[in-house]
Amino acid sequence: MTYTTSDLNSEKIKAFQNLDVDQQLALFWFIYTEMGESITPAAPGASTASPAIAEGLFSQVEKLSHEEQLQLQRDLITHKNTQLAREYSALGDTTKLLFWYLLAQGMDKGTVVPVPADYKLPGAAESLFTQIKGLEFNEQITLFRDIVSPMGVDPNAVEHDSETGL
């Protein structure tokens, strides 16, 4: 499924992508903690595919060490050619959103590596966070889909990676 980025969100997406990888992950966490209750009813029921698909990928991640979980999340953002990044890329956009929601829930439960308790968003990330909080709910969900959609790796669009063997 292809998802078209909205013009409304293109500046915010660019600002998000200009953050370093760990700031992007932290911003996801802050968004979830701030807006989790409003995202909660939308994410699980919104997937056009069976939630079991996102849960299956999440289950693989949950079995990894915290260090490997963090690396996987970084790999998704940086498009590193790994098996899990390929599996993620095969998901539909709404299922990708559900996967990130499951990661946030796992962080809440302690089964996924958490953001350090004393972490503070740096200026650019904090500014973007404020802008996101000011969006209408549907605009927020659209923005989140626009952000998570291009993550991962399309195996047909990358060259062989000698490091991963893929």
Task: Give a brief outline of the structure.
The protein is 66% helix and 0% strand.
CA radius of gyration: 15 Å
Q: Indicate the proportion of strand residues.
A: under 5%
Uncertain residue segments? 1-5
Any idea what the CATH superfamily is called? Orange carotenoid-binding protein, N-terminal domain
SSE string: HHHHHHHH
Molecular structure report:
With 166 residues, the chain is mainly α. It has a single domain, classed as Orthogonal Bundle (orange carotenoid protein, domain 2). It has eight helices and no strands. Helix 2 (21-46) crosses helix 6, helix 2 packs parallel to helix 7 and helix 3 crosses helix 6. The two termini are 23 Å apart.
Features:
166 residues, mainly alpha, orange carotenoid protein, domain 2, 8 helices, globular, disordered N terminus
Blueprint (SSEs and pairs):
Elements: H1 7-18, H2 21-46, H3 51-62, H4 66-78, H5 83-89, H6 93-109, H7 123-133, H8 137-148
Helix pairs in contact: 1-8, 2-4, 2-6, 2-7, 3-6, 6-8
